[in-house]
Write a structure and sequence with these properties.
Blueprint lengths: L1 E7 L5 H18 L3 E11 L2 E10 L4 E8 L2 H22 L2 H4 L7 E9 L17 E12 L1 H11 L3 E6 L6 E6 L5 E4 L3
Parallel strand pairs: 1-2, 6-7
Antiparallel strand pairs: 2-3, 3-4, 5-6, 7-8, 8-9
Helix pairs in contact: 1-2, 2-4
């Protein structure tokens, strides 16, 4: 497994990196057999440390957690507990056909944009029809079955998930939580 342990404007010592690797190895060994990589980012805001962790599994699941604390080790331990809980929930829902996946989930590169919101809603100017792009990032679109996509969306607590249906070559699919509590699935023709 590949680890990327970094600090934003703070130095991360060897002892903390070893602690992070050991704790994550225990959690991942307990619940997930085939992790691909993990990214852990530490930062400090005032007197409080923040830890953001992301683990990518070969089944397509991305487990994410974030925590805050006044001590950096306690901050990571809280974050690790959240990851442990997510992976435990995932393991409970995992079906046998997921274990048969011999190859990691295929990820396709895509562009993701953040558009500026309109401050003045009364403007009738033509410039509001062309929103301003304030950020451009690269994102990954996984190739999953519909069941895996719904499970990943629910485990991540996300309102929507964009994916490619691995059963069909129908382009990009979307699953989302509807206002009535059900799950919606958009499958283009």
């Amino acid at each position: 497994m590949r680890y990327q342990i970094t600090g934003k404007q703070i130095d991360i010592g060897d002892a903390l990196q070893t602690h992070v690797r050991n704790c994550l190895d225990e959690v991942i060994e307990k619940y997930a057999g085939r992790p691909t990589d993990a990214a852990i980012i530490f930062s400090k805001s005032g007197s409080e440390y923040t830890c953001e962790a992301t683990i990518h599994l070969s089944t397509g699941l991305t487990a994410q957690a974030k925590s805050h604390d006044h001590e950096i080790y306690a901050c990571f331990d809280k974050c690790c507990e959240k990851l442990d809980k997510q992976l435990r929930r995932y393991k409970r829902r995992l079906k046998d056909h997921h274990r048969e996946r011999a190859q990691p989930v295929e990820l396709l590169a895509a562009s993701s944009y953040v558009l500026a919101s309109s401050d003045d809603e009364d403007e009738s100017d033509d410039s509001t029809l062309q929103p301003m792009i304030i950020a451009e990032m690269e994102t990954k679109i996984p190739s999953l079955s519909v069941g895996e996509a719904v499970m990943q969306m629910e485990l991540a607590g996300a309102p929507v998930l964009v994916f490619r249906n691995e059963k069909q070559d129908s382009g990009v699919n979307i699953v989302y939580r509807r206002d009535d509590g059900n799950i919606g699935w958009i499958d283009p023709n």
